[in-house]
Amino acid sequence: MNLLLDTHALIWYITDSRRLPAKTRSLIELPENHCFVSLATYWEMAVKNSHNTK
Question: What is the mean pLDDT of each run of 10 residues along the chain (54 residues)?
């Protein structure tokens, strides 16, 4: 299965947040699934990070 992770899902997965539902985490971790992240997600994270550094 192909999965497109949004910004929250990516951050919650990377940080091992309990906000990410267990079912979603298990889908991400299944080796047969392919996870993708949009370039817009990286852009959004950069914009949000730049607001935190000012």
Answer: 96 97 98 97 91 73
- Close Cβ partners of 10 (under 8 Å, ≥ 6 residues apart): 37, 41, 45
Do the domain assignments include residue 16? yes
Question: Tokens 């990410």 — which residue?
Answer: 20
Sign of CA pseudo-dihedral 12, 13, 17, 18: positive
Pairing verdict, β 2-5 and 34-37: parallel
12 found inside a domain: yes
**Is residue 22, in this structure, part of any structural domain at all?**
yes
